Amino acid sequence: MIPYGRQTISxxxxxxxxxxxxxxxxxxxxxxxxxxxxxxxxxxxxxxVAVGSATSALHLACxxxxxxxxDIVWTSPNTFVASANCARYCGAKIDFVDIDPFTYNISTxxxxxxxxxxxxxxxxxxxxxxxxxxxxxxxxxxxxxxSIKYGFRIIEDASHAIGATYLSELIGSGxxxxxxxxxxxxxxxxxxGEGGMALTNKPELAERMSxxxxxxxxxxxxxxxxxIEGAWYYQQIDLGYNYRMTDIQAALGFSQLQRLNRFLxxxxxxxxxxxxxxxxxxxxxxxxxxxxxxxxHLYVIGWNEERSGISRAEAFHRLRxxxxxxNVHYIPVHLQPYYRQFGFKPGQFPNSEAYxxxxxxxxxFPGLTEERQDWIVxxxxxxxxx
Length: 386
Ligand SMILES: *Cc1c(COP(=O)(O)O)cnc(C)c1O
Prior knowledge:
This protein is an alpha/beta fold. Strands 1-9-8-5-4-2-3 form a seven-stranded mixed β-sheet, with helices on both faces. A hairpin with a 2-residue loop joins strand 6 and strand 7. The longest helix has 19 residues. The radius of gyration is 22 Å and the shape is globular. Pyridoxal-5'-phosphate (PLP) binds next to helix 3 and helix 4. Pyridoxal-5'-phosphate binds next to helix 3 and helix 4.
C-alpha cells in the first residue's frame, strides 16, 4: 500500500540517533536546546519550546495564555481533534468557525460575522486557534487585525505547515500570533518519531511553557520566592507535566531539519505534478493563493459524485483496493460524539461538512516517485473515464 504520507529517514538521521545513544544524555540534554534554536532560527522566532507532541504543545500554549474554565476558544472544524481538545484540557468551552470553501481554512467572512455576534452577546473568544490546513497558511494579517479589534489571542496550529510562507515570511515567525505549534509526527513535514514544538517571540510565554513542560519546576533564582538553598534546590511554581522531548528525538529532528528545504521542494513539485496531471479530470483540485506558499502536508481532491456516478466511499474503497493508501482529512470535529455532547449538530458548519463529504487525501511525501504518482493518476483517470 502506498501510504498518504510517510517519513523519509536517511543514514545521517540514523547516525544522529545512534550518537545520542552513545552519549551521556538520553532525555532532555544538549540536543533539545540545539534543535529548539535551529527551528527558531529557521523560522525567525525568538523562542522555541520542544515537547513530546504537538498535542502537548497546544495544551501548554493554552495554559500559557491563561485559558481556563469560563473561557471560550474558537478553532476550525476541519482539523485534527487535538486543535480543539487542548482547550478542553483547560476546562474552556470550544466553538468553531466554518471554513472557506476554497482553501478549507477558517473563513475570514464567517469569523467576522461570528465575532460581531459574539461581541453583542458577550461571548467573545479568549483564544483563536487557526489551523494552516494541508500546509496552506490562513489569512493571518486579517486574523491578527481582528484579534486586536476584539481582544483575543492567536495560537497557530501549524502542525502541517513548517516551511510554509505567508506574505514571503515563514510560518512560525510569530508576526501575527502569540504562539505557533509544529508537529513532528512521522506523517508531518519533518519527524522526531513523536514530537512537537511551540514558538513565540514573547519571553514570558516561553518561560511559562518551558516550566510547564517539566512539572512546573524551575531552577532559575529569578523565578523563586526565596533564596536558593543549595545546588540541589528547585521550586515547583505551577502544576506542570512531563511533556519533555528526549535527546534521541531532538537529534533526529535536528538532522531532519537539515533536509527540510529538500522535503519541501519534493512536496511542492509532487503537488504541481498532481495539479497538472489531474486538471482535465472531473475533480476539485486544491486552490492555492499566490501570496502564500503551502508546505503540502496533504494533497486533497474533492470527489465529484454527480459527475463520476461513483460515491466518495466507493471511490475511496476502490483506490485502497488498488494499493493506494488514500485517507480523509478531516471528519468535522463538531460531529465527533465527544463534541456532540456539548450540543453541536450536523448542519451547523455546512462548508466543512460539504467539504468532508467529498474529500480524499492522495499520497504525497518526499519518497513518492513520479512513476508511482503517474500510476495513482492513471487509476483515477480509469475510474473517471466513462
Ligand atoms: C498532527 C496534528 C496534531 C497533533 O500532532 P501530534 O504531534 O500527533 O500531537 C494537531 N493538529 C493538527 C492539525 C495535526 O495535523
